[in-house]
Design a protein that fits this description.
Two copies of one chain form a homodimer. Chain A has about 400 residues and is α/β, with parallel strands linked by helices. Chain A is globular. The longest helix of chain A has 27 residues, at about 325-350. Helices cover about 45% and strands about 20% of the residues of chain A.
């Protein structure tokens, strides 16, 4: 087994834990955040910049890469790491979430799922076995099984059926594996229903995976629902395997989830908000396009050591955004990723030093979050905008 | 005088010359190419990347910066160099060309020019004196006077009038200067009329400028017309001052112009074509979006040492362009600028070694240029697309 997970320390006051995932391509100190590079690129950044921002592992997406450029192309040029010039660990998502949210879904059956590509409308059919095979050909380090990820809903029967099928697919995914040098995680579903979450976690744990993901969250549900879902899931997962919360990436959510025992996160939020000019600071998100930054002759964040804050004033960033200069998106992305990855490092150090609870309190006392109502409206807006044709939303 | 120009060597077979401009912010070995950063950013690149590509001096634009963010903002944050984090020499164009091509022109009189901003339609009035003052406040190292730059036309009376006004403005620009630490160049106009070019060059030379620019070229005229215009202008300019051909930047044109005694070039062509996926190689421009690059597991240009070619395959670049990933525009821009700036270095070395004519022959024998008819069609298309509202053409 080329993958291991060692727990270094647990927090005495919360469920937080510090650990270390080792892969043949490098170690991942946890809790860790995975920058999202769905199409084999973290939007606007080169791999060296992703590394410099503090990333030890990144995420790519099987759905996106299958549709474009095609896994055959990536295989031919030596695999995903070489293709994107990122020698470190890569986790590939199965694309389950994308099939059920981004593509036009045609049919879901136990055999597999039929959908139309969001890129060109072409019809595709994927089985759990095919999704494993695609990821084995991509050569990523951690792979995910195809899962059924329904939208947030209150209908237990729909969610129960999705859990059943996710379990069938999880079993088949395990059997479909041909390579033993990749870690395979199981994905827990179950919506906001504690009993279904327990069943899903227990069933997957009984099969035995290298790690466990909590899927079906961050789909527009209230935050408190997400937090209780995490609690109701984590309790049934084995202690000695990494726990990965899919699609969560705001600083405040990361802290809450770490406190509940989560080890891994991925989310496009830091990079997407960056391209919209929303930049993280210790006191909350700032919109760099606001008039107050027009002639501000200091970095956006004086405490930040990122390339952007070391070299450019808030006035310059403001100008680049107002002028829609491409450099804007890159500088903002560097800043937001550095902020989130720096937070992960501080979280880990705090857990090791036995002061995580204090760090969490201090951070959240200073960090002003978007109010819940506004947040839910924004989230819904984003979820529906994703299915627009690409050409209309190149920066989203 | 903080600016000097020293001629190191002249080509025995052509008019090519190697020299050195010194400014208080660094030296510029000539012949030199200035990457275009109209809005205080070379599109898609950070200043360190522009430097790494081989630039010693860049161009910014008074018209653009006056409209946005406003020269007052840049002044307040410590001047243009600090604003954009580029400590080396900067040449600012006066904006004459932009006023007469990009803005909606309202009135031109000897007093000055009234136009509407291409950004927000607001009305502005600029005199030659104001344009000098704006550049003194920006703090650039080489400044340009306001000139009247009519479109390419065959009507001598129109061009004669533009030359007359350009001369009046040139005289007033000299008198308007308050700083003595910036070089001021004169701009020769005269269209495709040898006699007007001679008059313009002689008149400006009699006033005495720190350098001389050839304006009113690369406006859609046939290449042979441009080359003869250069010849008919250069002959009347003083030997001991830099000669700057405005708006020219294709490799083949640079070689021809250097052979005719030009020392400085600026053009958005290498960066703009890069964002369209047209990449320079020794054998000509290649369109990276062509299907032949889909699975090509080698750099676009094996002979190129740029960051892009050292780290990424043509297949990856192809994928980034097809997927409209922001990283595409940056990697392509790095490559094209490195190519052009590398060509400038090779040109200079060849002149110093007395083998420029051989380099020019060898380069042009291998480099396949766009045929003249296609080129003129593309140029016209671009000239008219420039006046479209910004929102429709963010990448152009």
């Amino acid at each position: 087994m080329s993958h291991t997970f060692a727990l270094d320390k647990s927090c005495p006051e919360t469920g937080a834990r510090a650990g270390l995932i080792t892969t043949s391509r490098g170690a991942v100190p946890t809790p860790a955040f995975l920058p999202v590079g769905s199409q084999a690129a973290v939007k606007a950044l080169g791999p060296d910049e992703v590394r410099a921002a503090g990333a030890s592992i990144i995420l790519a997406n099987t759905y996106h890469l299958h549709l474009r450029p095609g896994v055959g192309v990536i295989e031919k040029v030596g695999g995903l790491h070489r293709f994107m010039s990122w020698p470190g660990p890569i986790l590939t998502d199965s694309g389950g979430y994308q099939v059920f949210s981004l593509a036009r879904l045609c049919r879901t059956a136990d055999e597999g799922v039929t959908f139309r590509s969001h890129v060109d409308g072409s019809e595709h059919f994927l089985t759990p076995e095919m999704v494993i095979q695609l990821q084995e050909r991509l050569g990523s380090d951690i792979i995910m099984p195809l899962d059924e990820c329904p939208p947030y809903c209150q209908e237990p029967e729909l969610i129960r059926e999705a859990v059943r099928r996710t379990h069938v697919w999880a079993e088949r995914s395990r059997l479909a594996r041909r390579r033993d040098d990749q870690a395979l995680y199981g994905i827990v579903q179950g919506g906001a229903f504690p009993e279904l979450r327990r069943q899903s976690a227990e069933f997957l744990a009984s099969l035995g995976f290298d790690g466990y993901a909590i899927g079906g969250v961050s789909l527009g549900e209230p935050k408190q629902v997400m937090f209780s879902t995490i609690e109701e899931t984590v309790g049934w997962l084995p202690e000695d395997r990494p726990r990965y919360l899919m699609g969560v990436g705001s600083p405040e959510d990361i802290l809450e989830a770490v406190a509940r025992g989560v080890d891994l996160f991925d989310s496009a939020l830091p990079t997407r908000t960056a391209r919209n000019g929303a930049l993280f600071t210790a006191s909350g998100r700032r919109n760099i396009q606001n008039a107050c930054y027009r002639d501000r002759d200091e970095p956006l964040d004086r405490d930040c050591g990122c390339y952007t804050c070391r070299h450019f004033s808030a006035a310059y960033l403001h100008h680049l955004f107002r002028s829609r200069e491409l450099l804007a998106y890159r500088l903002a992305t560097i800043h937001n990723l550095t902020f989130v990855l720096g937070l992960m490092r501080r979280i880990r150090e705090a857990i090791l030093d036995g002061r995580f609870a204090a760090l969490k309190r201090a951070f959240l006392a200073e960090y002003r979050t978007t109010d819940e109502e506004t947040r839910l409206v924004q989230k819904q807006k984003w979820l529906s905008s994703r299915t627009e044709p690409e050409s209309l939303a190149p920066f989203v």
